[in-house]
Amino acid sequence: MAASQNNDPEKSLKKIMTLYGAALFLGLAISIFAHHIEDISGFLTFLVPAAVLYFFVLFAYFKKGIFRKIAYGIMAVIGLISLFMIFYLEITGGH
Q1: Based on the domain organization, do 37 and 74 belong to the same domain?
Q2: Three-state DSSP state, 77
Q3: Residue ranges making up the domain that contains 28
Q4: What region, left, alpha or beta, does residue 39 occupy, with left being phi > 0 and alpha being psi -120 to 50 degrees?
């Protein structure tokens, strides 16, 4: 008799997103050495807060109630800032 498996799609998605985040940010950290990045402190100033924010939003999204609303709010703010930056960089002539 086959053992019944508890296939919870939400747990599977959380595991996949956690592994994705770990691979993403570890890969970016390794790129410091692979691409001989000169400004390591500047790169880490971006990388560490981005990783903390990613995993906080991931944690908040999979909680019920107010945490999920916080996750949606953070994602909306990031989306709006991204849209703003498109026009800002076009008006100011780039980066």
Answers
A1: no
A2: helix
A3: 13-58
A4: beta
> Are 47 and 78 found together in one domain?
no
Closest CA to 71 of 62, 83, 82: 62
pLDDT tens profile 4-44:
566 788 889 999 999 999 999 999 999 988 998 889 999 99
- Can you give the pLDDT at residue 5? 61
Indicate if 21 and 49 belong to the same structural domain.
yes
Residues 6+ apart with CB under 8 A from 50: 25
pTM of the entire predicted model: 0.79
